[in-house]
Amino acid sequence: MEISVSEQYGLPVVKMSGDLDSTSASQAEQEIFSSIDLKTQLVLDMTDCRYISSAGLRVLLMVCKQLKAQGGTWALAGGSEEIIDIMDMTGFSTFFTIFTTVEQAAESLSKQ
Amino acid sequence: MIRRLDAHPTHECKGFSLRSGKPIPFGAVIVPGGVNFSVYSRYADSCVLVLFNKHEPAPFAEIPFFPEFCIGNVFSMVVFDLDYENIEYGYRMTGPWDPKSGHRFDSSKILLDPYAKSIGGRDEWGKEPDWSNIFPHRSRIFFDDFDWEDDTQLQIPFEDLVIYEMHVRNFTAHPSSGIKHPGTFSGIREKIPYLKSLGINCVELLPVHEFDEFEHSRLSPVTGERLMNLWGYSNVGFFAPKAGYAATGKYGMQVDELKTTIKALHKAGIEVILDVVFNHTAEGNEQGPYISYRGIDNKSYYMLTPEGYYYNFSGCGNTLNCNNPIVRNMILDCLRYWVSDYHIDGFRFDLASILGRDQNGAPMNSPPLLETLAFDPVLGKCKLIAEAWDAGGLYQVGSFPSWDRWAEWNGKYRDDMRRFLKGDAGMVPAVMQRLQGSPDLYQWQNRMTSASVNFITCHDGFTLMDLVSYNDKHNEANGEDNRDGSNDNSSWNCGAEGPSDDPEITQLRLKQIKNAAAMLLVSNGAPMVLSGDEMGNSQDGNNNAYCQDNSISWLNWDLLKSHGELFRFMKQMIAFRMKHDVLRKSSYVRNTDSNAEISWHGVRAWEPDASFDSRTIAFMCRRFGCPEEPDVYAAVNMHWECHSFELPAAEGNAKWHVFANTDMRPPHDISEIGNEVLLDNQHAFLAGPRSVVVLVSKLNQRKGEDNGTAVTDGT
Lengths: 112, 715
What we know:
Number of strands of chain A: 6
Oligomer: heterodimer
Largest sheet of chain B: 8 strands, parallel, barrel
Low-confidence stretches of chain A: none
Shape of chain A: globular
């Protein structure tokens, strides 16, 4: 799992590449929290994420709950059909607004 | 945050950092830095934790519990730095091999944790297992932090329930279900709009605990297809959901998927009751496999004969020793877990009479397990429903120990109503009791209508369509020469055995199905509808389709088109029941004093005919002091001739209107609520052969409004 933080369309974008599972979840959580301002808006870019496990799903939810507690907002971009399907069936998708591209996600957040 | 003092290892073994664990709770629990493993065995001498990487054939570590890690009869230790999402674990137990004394320890076997919350090995339904696997059912560790938000048990009053008995796989496995993930928990979630449309408010799921669909797998002598354990009345683990029922089972996420499904059902106002099987396990008798309990503590978990063989009160090879204090606690832990972690609203206990037998198999007067469950605080708001008999001959319908908490599957309701439906003589007195919620069975114990789950069909036996299409069972496809399944079905085929092109027969069958639905839904007590009966689902006369994972069992959704009139009838009857409180009384309707809430009638008003040859009965429900509530009148003519029924007067200026008349063809067989049609003759009406007529009193309905409404002939 590789995590990179960049700014696109005026928003911080956390890009996760590879497998988000128990071996990478803890690192992912730390890196995300250390690199963003929780009061802001955030795009989670899952375009290059191959697999997400239970631990990975929980990290995403933890990030979003922390953001919500601080008044931030977020959106999820990309994600394979399989990943989105897993998120649907396990109930995690109800906590995210999911867009096809980072651009769409950023556009939606900027209107909020 | 301050780290805990016990978050540090004290021992090392084979490269693993360890410390003494906490004995309670049993099972594997994630703790700071590691996992706490705890397992009970009264008679084992030693125990080894066996660790596998997920799906790997051989273990990567075997870690013994040090003697100082044992407290009482419990082995417990913390193993640090485990990648718990990617491991599977089991135990090896060493102890005496002495079957006569009840001990069958075998340290060559790797055993499933009886408290495993997630079990791997049958991750995808029907996927051929690796038969050489040395540890086929593997304990896994799962996060128990599901985000329920504000979800809670719905606590729908018992008398307001309309239960829909459903098999997870059968409900949506058929291609006609038209959904993304057929045969799964997610499939149920996709079909919630359908369930809402029907109007039910509770689903009762056939077992969803982990079981092995390949148990007793064999080929059908009729079709050559593989026969499976489809129903799942054979537990591998009591705490884990059936992975193969989850579309995400292959990812090990069945826990989250089931919880998400329950959360969605609750949001739609639908309770979830689980059918739980605590009477036996999948280990069978002494010839069966070692999965868990036999190798962990055979003598505690099973009822054994003095010679050390397995008692078979379940008919499935062994009998769980439910009133052993340790097993009792396991059952309580299990149910508490399902209520607190899964928000389950109630349980239906399979062959529950076994739960009232002592350790020698004798029935007890106040079985401690049943009493414990009745008074347990965590289970305090959930429904407890007993299948009040067992395969050992104990039959307790009407006498199951209840402490005013236990309800029963009312087997007598099923038997009496079936016989009445097919036109047997001598049934009217019993039917009068069943319609009122069976006070003859329950009132003597001061129990209420909530003691009775009324049903005419359930998974066990004919579907409603088959009940009116077959005189005899046709179980040849099960491969037991038609010996399996009940011979006592009280069914009638309406003139031909099985499918028929004769319109008189097919029409009569549809009418009989509506008759059954109407009687069920005007009876006090909680009605239970078998999934598929609302669309005329058939199992081709198979009354024991436990092994038919195919079109025999799968619900064919195309039936909604061909038998749409049945769905419409059932839906409207459910709506009618929900509209009229007098049909959903929690206490028994008063039937004696001058303000009687129920009055009995027959072909002559106020004169019910309960004689042996009578096949007619009618009743009127009236709530005194509630003038805004209409009277409800229902006449049941199970005779093969027409009968004119004289009507009692409706209250005040109200007039009788027809809500349902099963003798009429659609759309006149049943009305929309509020569109009931004024009856021409307010003094009498003609009920057709084998028909049910339901009337409601109203003040101001104009005659002849025709919006798909019911009519009946005046006389």
